[in-house]
Amino acid sequence: MKTKFLWLCLASCVLLLISFHAAHSQTPKTPAELRQLAAEYYSWRNQNFPVFSSDAGLHTWDNRLTDYSLSAVLDRRLHAKELLAKVQAMPTKDWNKEDRIDWLLFRAQLDGVVFFNRVFDFEQSDPQLYVNECSNGIFSLLKKEYDTPRNRALSATARLKQMPALVEQGKGNLIKPGRLYAQLAIDSARSIDSLFTDSLMSLAKDLSPAERNELVKSRDAALTSLHGFADWLERRLPGMVPFKPMGEENYNYILKNIYLLPLDAMQVEMLGQAELARYRALESLLPDPSLADPNPARSKNIPPDQDSFLKAYEIRQQEMVTFLKTNRLISLPDYIGPFYIRQLPEAFKPTSPGGFMNPPGVYDKDPSGFFFIPTYNPASKNFYIRAAIEDPRPILGHEGIPGHFLQLSIANHVPNEIRRQHGDGIFVEGWALYGEEMLMRTGLYPNNSAGQGQILRLSRYRAARIGVDVNLHTGKWTFDQAVNYFMEAGGLDREAATGEAAGAAASPTQKITYMVGKWQIMRLLGKYRDKQGTNFRLGQFHDDLVKNGSLPLSIVEWMLLDDSSSLDQALR
Predict the structure, then answer these.
(1) Interacting residues of 33 by C-beta distance below 8 A, sequence separation 6+
(2) 365: which of 118, 274, 398, 537 lies 20 to 30 Å off by Cα?
(3) 553 within some domain
(4) pLDDT-derived band of residue 379, with 50, 70 and 90 as boundaries?
(5) Is residue 563 part of a domain?
(6) pLDDT tens digit string along 169-207?
């Protein structure tokens, strides 16, 4: 009760400060002032979220964790809210197109921060926030060799020392934790040991005996604290709310104001139903419909162990690069680095059963990227493992080239800072999913092949994701209904379906981004071709599409076709 009262008092003070600052702050008026505000905001954000900075390739604050004290949380919220108010008040009606695009993008970035602070209040409701801060705090120091092992180990020691205090901040803040989020945090906290013991200790070889002892001592204290946090959460599970949806009004707010999407929740859900029906039927139209369900037994070569599996996976990327170049399907800039396949750390498995992509960060000097795949087991029932054994190219096309790795590498080189910082998930995931089918349609996979079947199944379950995300977060479905829908409609096994549903619950709207983005890109492709006429070339469309960064596709349509109708619809 004491903590709750303190939150209420501090929140009241914040409201008073907002009123005071709003009355005494001067509204910026020019595009130059907009860009100055944006630059200052990115610098402020990077300092206030040091683990985010490390993960993005900026290693200035590698020895720090985010401060989750009540005063720091509320101060950050106030800063974002005040800045959004300034940006919203700017007189942009007479600005030119390029400046207005930057204003819309920066406003959407800030609106997203303020919205999630207000509606989800993760510091008070989601225990994953604190476990993820600890796991990512170490993982961001391990994944790339940006400095000597010794210096990275010393940074890790500094972060490990701060973890017990951070966990205590979490306990004090979590006055309304959700049961589902708590269970995911428990699973992650109890799976974190190998990251801290095996992976982290690979950096310790050049430490002095005293430094190594300090690292081990700090590591053990951090693990004890995280395990205790899991126990603390588990004892409180029975009294927690199972899952609290945001509701349809808030869901629509995200679609319109943050994604700048010309669709509401009901329209998105209908799009999911239409695409699900289409891809389910296309599977059935295969001469051998069973090809849509990956089966390692059909593979000529089953890798004997993890290392062989990862190498076999990685080597197939070159085939795809050759195909793209031969058919002039997209330009590959000289600055594109290598792309690796690595094993998924245990701590990330609860919400990422299929692994995840780790692209070069926006500040990264190292151009390489990684795709983390679950632990190899030739007898696994996991969809992603089975698919990767039979034919890894569909997933490679999504995660590597021409998918996330290529697209995000190009986005990192956009000179406009506001656009380079924008990470519209609908564009990012839509491009990767579009690329899967584009490669099939342009001839990479033969008819009635495992690759073709996999493409259809991947699109099918991405369409199923829409129904789960919309219905879960608007309050129409329970978590169990979401799992069952992934199994029945999406064609996934229970392990993958449970992980997918957990990911949908943990990251609101993320699961709609794939199919919604693909649909927008397909729609834009048709309009682009009509405008180009006989000058149309598919590879040129792809180059034009990705060269501006990860922007809302309604903005991209305005840029490429000088057609703002989709954007106008979103902004109404």
Answers:
(1) 90
(2) 398
(3) no
(4) confident
(5) no
(6) 999 999 999 998 999 999 999 999 989 998 899 899 999
pTM value is: 0.91
Q: What is the dihedral of CA 80, 85, 86, 87, to 10 degrees?
A: 90
Strands 369-373 and 339-343: parallel
Residue 423, φ and ψ in degrees, nearest 5: -125, 70
Domain end, chosen from 185, 205, 239, is at 239
527, 560 Cβ separation under 8 angstroms: no
Which helix (DSSP H) or strand (DSSP E) does residue 270 occupy?
Answer: helix 265-284
In the 8-state DSSP scheme, what is residue 257?
Answer: I
User: 456-469 b/e with 16+ CB inside 10 Å = b?
Assistant: bbbbbbbbbbbbbb
Distance CA 299, CA 43 (A): 50
Which of 473, 490, 519 is where one domain is finished? 519
Q: Are residues 169 and 288 in the same domain?
A: no
SS3 string, 168-227, reads HHHHHHCCCCEHHHHHHHHHHHCCCHHHHHHHHHCCHHHCCHHHHHHHHHHHHHHHHHHH
Instruction: Note the Cα 549 to chain centre separation in Å.
Output: 15
Write down the pLDDT at residue 356: 76
The arithmetic mean of pLDDT across residues 91-104, rounded, is 97
Domain count, the chain: 2
Average pLDDT value for the chain: 92
DSSP annotation of 241 reads B
Q: What's the rounded Cα separation, in Å, for the pair 260 and 485?
A: 28
Rounded Cα–Cα distance for residues 396 and 310 (Å): 12
Q: Which helix (H) or strand (E) holds 42?
A: helix 31-48
Contact 128, 174 (CB under 8 A): no
Token digits of residue 126: 């989601």
Q: What is the pLDDT of residues 383-435, one digit of tens each?
A: 888 988 999 999 999 999 999 999 999 999 999 999 999 999 999 999 999 99
β-bridge partners, 423 = 550
Q: How confident is the model at residue 23 (pLDDT cuts 50, 70, 90)?
A: very low
User: What pLDDT does 90 receive?
Assistant: 96
